[in-house]
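Support request from a user on the community tier.

User writes: "When I paste my structure tokens into the form, the page sometimes reloads and wipes my input. The last time it worked, I copied everything first. Here is what I submitted, just in case something in the input itself triggers the reload:"
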């Protein structure tokens, strides 16, 4: 089922030097249960497109549909909070909080109704963090573990769409594959729509569909 659709999306950045046409009429459809990789050289518009898909910003032109609703008609912030989980290259965990508190905080912000501690612990277990580690501060984990905690945080509210911007950019091969395996499982076992921006060929290889961007254009779209 198609859950996210981009129709002729364009985006410009206004700088002192003039307009930068970062995204040019991108059209695509994304389904649940599928892992997408977005590849393309630096500056080709990948992060710009992902920010629009996450509802972080509105396109200058074109339209995004979540299921059959246009993001122009629904609250973008609410869409993001309820339906999107995001993962970044730098994990952005809060250093003063423990692993479990980092995940709980995202549940708090999303006004999660159930037992937050229990849900946070389940998510950490799902990504392979051991119970003994739950109360350790996030800075005391390795990079690979921190990214797994960030994944737990992103999926805690059970979003349908998981967006990851170079999630393995700071990780060695073993840890990269660990994260990719979790992301693939989220799509194939839990039916999520997983979209991963990556520069790594071995990450893109694990995706079901690879999309390429070049100079603001999305080339081969599904
Ligand atoms: N905040 C900004 N202000 C002005 N220009 C920007 C801004 N962010 C990105 N750009 C420009 O928009 C274009 C697309 O950038 P974007 O970050 O989307 O590329 P990318 O494909 O994610 O690159 P990378 O692989 O390096 O992360 C580039 O020309 C970039 O310089
Ligand atoms: Mg980028």
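"...and here is what came back when it finally went through:"
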């Amino acid at each position: 089922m198609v859950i996210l659709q981009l129709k002729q999306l364009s985006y410009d950045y206004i700088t002192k030097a003039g307009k930068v046409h970062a995204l040019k009429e991108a059209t695509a459809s994304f389904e649940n249960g599928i892992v997408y990789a977005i590849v393309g050289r630096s500056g080709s518009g990948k992060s710009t497109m992902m920010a629009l898909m996450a509802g972080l910003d509105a396109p200058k032109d074109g339209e995004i549909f979540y299921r059959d609703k246009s993001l122009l008609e629904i609250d973008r912030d609410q869409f993001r909070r309820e339906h999107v989980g995001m993962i970044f290259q730098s994990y952005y965990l809060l250093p003063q909080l423990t692993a479990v508190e980092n995940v709980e905080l995202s549940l708090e912000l999303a006004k999660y109704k159930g037992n937050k501690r229990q849900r946070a612990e389940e998510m950490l277990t799902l990504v392979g963090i051991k119970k003994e580690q739950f109360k350790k501060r996030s800075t005391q984990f390795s990079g690979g573990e921190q990214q797994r905690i960030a994944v737990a945080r992103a999926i805690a509210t059970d979003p349908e769409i998981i967006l990851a911007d170079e999630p393995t950019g700071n990780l060695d091969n073993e840890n990269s594959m660990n994260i990719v395996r979790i992301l693939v499982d989220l799509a194939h076992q839990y039916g999520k729509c997983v979209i991963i921006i990556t520069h790594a060929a071995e990450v893109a290889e694990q995706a079901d569909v690879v999309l390429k961007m070049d100079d603001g254009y999305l080339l081969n779209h599904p």
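Agent notes: The reload is a front-end session timeout and is unrelated to the input. DSSP finds seven helices and ten strands in the chain. The first helix runs from residue 46 to 53. Escalated to web team.
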